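Inputs:
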Amino acid sequence: MRSFDILIKNGIILTMDPENSIFHGGIVGITGDSISYVGEGPTEIEAGRVIDAKGGIVLPGLINGHTHAAMTLFRGLADDLPLMEWLNNYIFPAESRIDPDFVHTGTLLACAEMILSGTTTFCDMYLFEDEAARAAKAAGMRCLVGEVLYDFDSPNYGPPAQGLKYTESLIEKWKGDPLVSIAVEPHALFTCSPDLLTAANRLALEHDAPLIIHLSETANELVQIRERYGKKPVEHLASLGILGPHLIADHCVHLDGEEIELMAEKDARVIHNPESNMKLASGIAPVPAMISRGIITGLGTDGCASNNDLDLFSEMDIAAKLHKVGTMDTTVMDSLTVLRMATIEGAKALGMGHITGSLEKGKKADVIVLDINKPHMTPMYNPISHLVYSAKGSDVIHTVINGSLVMSERKLLTVDIEEVMTKAGDRSREILDWIRSANQ
Amino acid sequence: MRSFDILIKNGIILTMDPENSIFHGGIVGITGDSISYVGEGPTEIEAGRVIDAKGGIVLPGLINGHTHAAMTLFRGLADDLPLMEWLNNYIFPAESRIDPDFVHTGTLLACAEMILSGTTTFCDMYLFEDEAARAAKAAGMRCLVGEVLYDFDSPNYGPPAQGLKYTESLIEKWKGDPLVSIAVEPHALFTCSPDLLTAANRLALEHDAPLIIHLSETANELVQIRERYGKKPVEHLASLGILGPHLIADHCVHLDGEEIELMAEKDARVIHNPESNMKLASGIAPVPAMISRGIITGLGTDGCASNNDLDLFSEMDIAAKLHKVGTMDTTVMDSLTVLRMATIEGAKALGMGHITGSLEKGKKADVIVLDINKPHMTPMYNPISHLVYSAKGSDVIHTVINGSLVMSERKLLTVDIEEVMTKAGDRSREILDWIRSANQ
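Outputs:
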């Protein structure tokens, strides 16, 4: 007799292990916070709780490799504007006035949305990140968070020099936490001096923390970095000694072949954010080339102001399609490649490949169950194709994170969502006041 | 006292009328098959049935301007392949063996999926289209359908010459039907001789029916048409005297400036299918340029083999984003433009602008209600932005078509969906056998 705390049965189990093993009608056994069994299943089992997948798909929880979670509160505030008008008239004036409660509320709302659409781990860069971590922990989500660092004053920590101290305090505070990890997060090459970048890198290496940065998101960044340092962005990073497996570079839209080669040689990681890159007209990142060259590449939604949602199912669909038309080749970014980006490759990109991203014995139990008994998932020739091209976030019905059930039958068990939505509505009216007064 | 058969109250009513009027907390009154009131609402009302939108969005039902509905049965059968391998090894062998039951089952499945994601009208091109019409009517959906015509034998009507007769029989049979209209539908310029195109056009004009054709979907079509006729595709159409307001051209990916000008001068209509054009690496259609030139342009999903769903909410989101990155301009395809494409402009493109596509007194009552009390729709600054960038098909909770309630609280009232999904599963196993025997 095998005994589990949670048993998930009667599903099509997509493990996303190195062989991409699939078990039809198999089981996932969970003991404590970890996966203790995946496979066809012993016949004699007892379990504290049984989740019947009813023939649906059982998948590792999705990994949102890059977001600014609290920006949910800016969702739909302004769209379809020239970039500088959008930033200067809306985003920057509002961000200058945000506070801890804003980040807590916005991140809780983001966690609710992410859990409801199948995400179990997210990587965040924003302000007041202790609040982001607290909100994620309250929601029961796994996260890698870091305070944004730049050469300006921050509404959180004040003058630039305090950013690293704040980051260090986060690292100390959350050390050993089962859900929250801390990264060092300089904003971008054009907003951070070489000194700040070097100091941030030193802090990251000292604490074995990832270093996360926006990189080559827009063509304008290339011009700025060339003007200031006479180098391409990745060359600038390399010259500062920052390229390495601890570096997670978000976007990488405008890397050329030499830069891809440099990134690959140093085993730096990439997070691709196709919807944001499209909506902000940033460009199409050379993702097929980066993956071909062996760069570990995950998928992210970016923040809600430039997407406007946190749904990795639509992000997968668009990632698969965008690069086909971008390269005029129907065979690139096949559904398995894209599904791996949203699961195990995303986990590896965040330095969490040993913890999450696949259903394998010994890993933490981050598992989602999808209902496939729906017209848009019918018929079913290939579950991997369906997950990328047909499934919707709303097909996710049960979610386990770190061995705890956080959503059952689409009911969130960790977040009082009515309360959070009411609060988000209240804050949105304040935000409109901030915008009005800034633009008077 | 005003009296309605159906009263929809307590919603944010987006009319999509010429002024894009919005009524907060207004009502839509339905009498028989038509809208008899839209606005702030009289205070004294009685109604046979009251639909409480509970603060949600009330919108005209979406218009899917181009699909091959029965291809739901090929959903996920094969993806990510070179185009000719996909067509020759999968789609063509399977299509050579389809039968009336296939089209009936596949179209019913499609109608269920479309209603569940907010579509109330669709335009279809496929085989055995009498079955498509019957299925749509059974599901209570509005449709414009036509039998595909080409220079080859058809599994339905046999030799090419019979295609026009079959189409004419459809026109006779469905004349005056409240939901079903018939179009004349030659497949494409490279599969239809000038004689067939001319005869099809004559039939369309004779019966005041739309003429629908795939146009310039791939760059290869340009080469073929140039080789055969020494002309660009739109020039070829013009030389045959076929360009006019009755022409609905699907895709139009590779039109140049001169062709856009010709299309605009003759008031021909366009249906844009971004997801299919991306997945099949067809290219990015010059939609912003066509709309700027005044060409009426709707939105379609194309068939499930190249999408792989029929969800116009994701199609809107992608349409808005694709052209921003395609033109490197964040301001093109703003959310209002895209929402109009999926509603009133789509209806106009199909020649149905007087019947559906907006909430206006005297039009047929095709109305959807969306639940916005969800994390991904919170907060709410701008309902139009949310419909394009944040809403999901699964947010649609009630649907009225032609004055009849076809979905209530997400429960389909017209289709026995369990039965249809079971049948679709059965047919999918047959389809796999067809593919195996064709590829032996």
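Remarks. Chain B has two domains: 2-60+364-412, 62-349. The domain at 2-60+364-412 of chain B is CATH 2.30.40.10 (Urease, subunit C; domain 1).
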